Amino acid sequence: MAGKQKKFIQGNEACAEGALYAGCRFYAGYPITPSTEIMEIMAARLPRIGGAFIQMEDEIASVSAIVGAALGGMKSMTATSGPGFSLMQEGFGYACMTEVPCVVVNVMRSGPSTGYPTGPSQSDVMQAKWGTHGDHPAIVLSPSSVQEALYETIRAFNLSEIYRTPVTILYDEVIGHMREAVTIPAPGDIEVVERQKPNCPASEYKPYEVKNGKVAPLAAYGEGYRFHVTGLYHAADGFPTGNFKLIQEANERLISKVENNREHIWKNEEFYLDDAEIGVFAYGVCAKSAKFAVKELRKKGVKVGLLRPLTIWPFPDDAVLEMARKVKTIIVPEMNLGQIINEVSRASKGQCEVRGLFRVDTDPIHPKQIMSAIMGKPVDATVIPNEVMIERDMIDG
Amino acid sequence: MSRRYEMRFSGSGGQGMILAGIIMAEAASIYGGKNAAQSQSYGPESRGGASRSEVIISEEEVDYPKATSIDAMLAMTQEACAKYCKDIKDGGILLIDSDEVKDVPSGNFKVCSFPITSIAIDELGKTIVANIIALGMITELTKIVSHEDIEKAVLSRVPAAFLELNKKALQIGFEKAKEVKG
Predict the structure, then answer these.
(1) End of a domain among A222, A244, A262?
(2) Cα–Cα distance, B11 to B15 (Å, whole number)
(3) Do B63 and A295 touch (CB under 8 A)?
(4) Domain that holds residue A308
(5) What is the dihedral of CA B17, B23, B28, B33, to 10 degrees?
(6) Torsion over CA of A80, A81, A84 and A90, rounded to 10 degrees?
(7) Which residue in B has a C-alpha nearest to residue A116's C-alpha?
(8) How far apart are CA B175 and CA A50, in angstroms?
(9) Of A181, A288, A392, the CB nearest to B4
(10) Shortest CA distance to B177 belongs to which of B128, B129, B113, B122?
(11) What is the spatial distance between Cα A174 and Cα A153, in angstroms, rounded to a whole number?
């Protein structure tokens, strides 16, 4: 399809469009609400453009398949929700250790276990950082609109190629299922990072050779480069090593390749923060309610602003600290029982008060609840404070 | 138009309430040039149960995609009407299918009552287009999108074999709403 076009689509459809735009040509997955539309679209579209789609027997197989496809030179993706994300953690860790670029989407629903499939949640936000065992890198992006689901999926593929690491896209049922008019970018409108190829002879290729702190480009199987891949700590040639010094260096480098490039990976929206006395830190569906609340209260002269991370891991320490130095209080609304609030508290270094607003009944946090919290009132998780007036309540007809 | 116009389409799962919401939002955004967001709420079952779809139309970017106080609501079943009518704002509009909704709620909003399902059967021989008749009615009652834009949106979303049927259903909706308005 040539040229820019506007389509009225769901967040999940936008995610699939973004993946295709970024050059994803392999998808393996197992259907699960509220992520299934991503899989349906990839199943319909990939075979028409020379790509491959496989429905796997489960999520463990799905993540393994996308790692394999990436080693074969493809850009690859899978999408799932909570229970499937849990199953994928072993393979995800393998991708971290073997430094294989790929993208995993988790459209959050509530848990633990199968929870509630058709409602939103944000209760996997710490799992997205610490779900797989061992010290491992985490890049996690958190879109908050349908258009952003498209753009952030492209960015996820780009970051995975740049840092040779799996990237997670984390959003919730509301973002996944809501529809908005979305601009589908024309080819060339948005940068797409292609995988670097090794430029040395195959006989000299070392898949984990580090030069200037950067790991070698990943060769594709089938193009003449023979190499070994293992989840054990390995030397530059990819074979297991028992060299303690190498192990220490390798683990540190896995973390530092992301942490040292935080400023490149971070992305925040700041809304009315300049003169704010109260700040809201919100992502995904809660950022939508929070923006509504901030706009309403600004009209009434309340000095409140919003910090919205589009990159949630690595955590935006610097932006939170900057906000904490400015405001008296930071409000953290989340659709879980208090997860990212602990990171906000850590990053704000005691510079201000941090208060949470947690709702897990699968109905999104209402803007009036956030308005109440900003005004310093106690908020019941499941009660809409109708005494809080919004402009719409005051317009006749 | 106030800066944010909120609509809710409610009925039973399988009655096409989510589709009605999608078409309305598409008419407002893709064809009408405004901003619109459509969202839905449904249970794990694929048929039955109260189902609702919400559309927010605005000149500005739509931030919160769910209804906060509703300008216009459609209720195709008694259960959906009872469950969801509480959020209608003062001066809002409630359109009910009088074939199904017998217990008409009272409040500071205008109630438009019409036998939508039986008209679908009498005039078109199919209950399946009741949602499109309702969409025509709510378009005429609210004037939030033009007849042309809603028709374009309907025709882009229904299967090719049923274009004429749906076009007729929409027209019936426009006309019946004029009668209801008086």
Answers:
(1) A262
(2) 7
(3) yes
(4) 270-394
(5) 150
(6) 80
(7) B44
(8) 50
(9) A392
(10) B113
(11) 17
The residue of B5, B63, B144 whose CB has the most chain A CBs within 10 angstroms, and thus the best one to mutate to test that interface, is B63
Check B69 against A392: CB less than 8 A apart.
Answer: yes
Closest CA to B105 of B80, B134, B130, B140: B80
Interface residue A397 vs chain B (CB under 8 A): yes
Do residues A219 and A358 share a domain? no
**The dihedral of CA A221, A225, A230, A234: what is its sign?**
negative
Average pLDDT, consecutive stretches of 10 residues, N- to C-terminus, chain A (397 residues): 77 98 98 98 98 98 98 98 98 98 97 93 98 98 98 98 98 97 96 96 96 94 96 98 97 97 98 98 98 96 98 98 98 98 98 98 96 96 91 59
- State which of A262, A293, A309 marks the end of a domain: A262
Q: Do A8 and B66 touch (CB under 8 A)?
A: no
The Cα-based distances of A233 to A4, A6, A99, A207, A270 in angstroms read 46, 47, 12, 13, 41
Q: Choose among B2, B42, B64: nearest Cβ to A292.
A: B64
- What mean pLDDT do residues B149-175 have? 96
Cβ of B63 and A8 within 8 Å?
no
pTM recorded for the entire structure: 0.96
Which residue of A8, A13, A361 to mutate against B (max B Cβ within 10 Å)?
A8
| pLDDT tens digit sequence for A302-356 | 999 999 999 999 999 999 999 999 999 999 999 999 999 999 999 999 999 999 9
**A386 Cβ under 8 Å from any chain B Cβ:** no
C-alpha to C-alpha distance for B6 and A376, rounded to whole angstroms = 28
> The tokens 């500005």 sit on which residue?
B60
Chain B contact for A387, CB < 8 A?
no
Identity of residue B25: A
Measured between CA atoms, the residue of chain B closest to residue A145 is: B63
For chain B, list the domains and their CATH numbers. Answer: 4-181 (3.40.920.10)
How close, in Å, is residue A277 to chain B by CA atoms? 22
Provide the CATH number for the domain around residue A309. 3.40.50.920
Inter-chain touch B63–A396, beta carbons under 8 Å: no
> Which CATH number belongs to the domain containing residue A115 in this structure?
3.40.50.970
Question: Which tokens sit at A207?
Answer: 């898949």
Pairing of strands A166-172, A102-108: parallel
Question: Measured in Å, how far apart are chain B's first and last C-alpha atoms?
Answer: 23
Q: Using the beta-carbon criterion (under 8 Å), do A397 and B91 form an inter-chain contact?
A: yes
CA dist list (Å): B46 to A108, A189, A362, B49, B132? 20, 40, 19, 9, 20
List CB contacts of B107: < 8 A, sequence separation 6 or more: B85, B88
Q: Is the Cβ pair A295, B65 closer than 8 Å?
A: no
